[in-house]
Amino acid sequence: MRFFIIISFLIAFALSGYSQNKKTYQIKRTHRAPKIDGFLDDEVWKTADTAKDFTQFRPEMGIKDTDSIKTMVKIAYDDKAIYFGAYLHDNPSKIMRQLTTRDDFGQSDFFGIFINPNNDAQNDTEFFVFSSGTQADAIANPSIGEDFSWNAVWESKVQMVDDGWIVEIKIPYRALRFSNENVQTWGLQFHRHFRRNRSQYTWNPIDRTKGNMGLYHGELKPLENIESPTRLSFYPFISGLVNTFDGETESDINFGLDVKYGITENFTLDATLVPDFSQAGFDNLELNLGPFEQTYSEQRQFFTEGVDLFSKGDLFFSRRIGSSPTGDVELLENEVIQNYPNSVSVLNAIKVSGRTKNGLGIGVFNALTDKTFATIKDTISEELRNDVVEPIANYNILVLDQQFNKNSSISLINTNVTRDGHFKDANVTGLIFDISNKRNTYNTYGEAKMSHLNLEDENSTGFSSFFRAGKSHGKFRYSFDHSYADTKYDINDLGLLFRNNYNNFGVDFSYRIFEPTKKLNNYFISTYLNYTRLANPGEYTGTSLGFNYNAETKTLHNFGGNLRFEAGKQYDYFEPRTEGRYFIYENRINSNFWISSNYNKTFAIDASLGGATLFEKNRDTKEFWYELSPRIQFNEKLTITYAFEYNKELKDRGYVTTVGNDIIFGERDRKTQINSIRATYTFSSFHGLSLTFRNYWSTVNYNNRLFTLEHNGRLNQNSGYTVNTLENNPNINYNTWNLDLNYSWQFAPGSFLTALYRNQLFSFDHASKDSFGNSIKTLFDQPIQNTFSLRIQYFIDYASIKNVLNKRST
User: Fold this and answer.
1) Of 193, 211, 254, 484, which has the fewest Cβ atoms less than 10 A away?
2) Residue 137 located in a structural domain
3) φ, ψ for residue 587 (rounded to 5)?
4) φ/ψ of residue 647, rounded to 5
5) What φ, ψ does residue 197 adopt, rounded to 5°?
6) Which domain holds residue 64?
7) In this model, does residue 365 exceed pLDDT 60?
8) Which strands form 384-390's sheet, in the order they lie side by side?
9) Rounded CA gap, 166 and 115, in Å?
10) What would you report as the CA-atom Rg of the chain, rounded to the nearest whole angstrom?
């Protein structure tokens, strides 16, 4: 009840009056659509009004454009699409242009169109065209920022002229979601970016000191008697895969279909009926010595595109779907596990999402995974049997997100995992609010979440909450936050939670500038203080404070640094891997400095340098790291980036194993180095090659004498344990190699051919004192996995086919 009272008070707080002046563009209907060729000689452009008088908002606010860089935009519409023609004045010798693939901005000038059909200042559809002719598109809102994994099919064409460049654009209504009202007013904003000095101008002026950018959109009206088309698109595909490993070759051919269907004018269904993830990238594997789960980013396109609603409250981690099975195998006498699968097959998945004119967002997600078996072998009879380690499982998410006041929202999220049989089920419900006052000067954000596990023996219910309030405008800002989770809070069947059992408090202060100084375009300074405890028992665990700084110079070089100090005794209740036990360390300090030079230059470099140590009696722990990443842009088509990362920890102490009731710790030296290369060669804005290579090598070498962890959190080295007496050698030499060569060709709108070659090597042993050269030699003695895949996807628009058939019939 208290939580709902707080929300009611905050909603009332948000409704104080405020108004914003907006430009308006009066659009006219055309009966003859312009030809999208980059020449503004069509009849429609002769009578259309002009959007002009752009204003800079970055790096400086309020500067009007001049005749030499003037932007002139015309707009028209008909029953099928909305059209834009932009004349972007500039000196051609100053226009930056780099050929890149879709959604990669590179080092290019760009023109952007932000459309908000609901005119709610919170839900934009963004379309960008670069001076190179490449397209980018995204959906955006204040909660997630810009999501460039979203892709639409639309047309654009660029022409370079003596006094600048011209872009002509057609955006079909199928790419937008809007109501069927007879007369509509849309939110509209234009962006013009000059890469040479990173200045950016907009049609309607933006005040960066407060509020989100959507609040500063102009308006487009009147759009009369337009109807949302039948938004039905098919993406049939065929993929072939050949995989070789350790002398064995496997091949597979897959036919499938992805579907997008506009259920109503505002809601869309996305479905993958026969999932194909054969071209999902390799994970960047790393050696994990910590107590928490190691995770990797999502590589499957269906689970990255258009998931903004489902990301509310951080309850959805898509890698759970199709991940390793959750069940255990019960072995009988003389049995061993011959094969335990590391993934589960996804049978199908659908998403339904959209938002009403009144700001109510609704999202439904559902995925079904297949029954999965482990293979067990009897070592005497050599008979095999299968045991279910993951039953058929259904993953479901329901989201209700009510936006209001053009800057606030309240959301209800439920995630559910239902497994067949005696396997556990899971359910999580969250209530989220994000409320700003009407003047966009203060913000409050809160979460209340409850998890419930239906286990074989008993049920378990947990709770978590988060609250933050602060000043959100001006140069100086501050906030206070509190986070809490009890010992039973668990969202890891469909979400991601590294740990529970915390009761933490934090205070943050920051200062930034919005107008350039004599030498800097901008800078940002922040400091924070965190105080942490366990939820149960309510024990103190630590205090930390820190400082961050970053800035950009007038010459477009970026630099920054940070400092963090964990003051006094810190009580780590997770490193021992035993409930109720803790490990004490004291006064840890770490710092880092970085630079990133101007990417507009042929040669650029990113570099960082950092270190850490403890100020603790009888401890001599040190750590240092650095990274160098030179980047060369040979021409507008070819760019190569190399990165070298090095990290060394000396006399660090951490968990090794548990023997009986003894928790064993060790003092260790760890060395990690990463070599990576990324190269791109873009033939045109429609097809290009990319090469990615990564070698990760890490060694861990323990001092022979080990410690036992005492109940007071301190270590005892007189227990008699040594590396040589342990059953398993803890010393590690871990080495991985990944290489990806990718060719992508957009041969028709929305249609792609993708060819991919990959190889992968992996080595794990205990030769922790081997040199890098010897470790590489060992790595290349391992069997190599070679993968070649080819995928062809074709875009079919139902409305286009219908129009063609109607023309033929008449």
Assistant:
1) 254
2) yes
3) 50, 60
4) -140, 135
5) -130, 10
6) 23-224
7) yes
8) 335-339, 372-378, 384-390
9) 20
10) 29
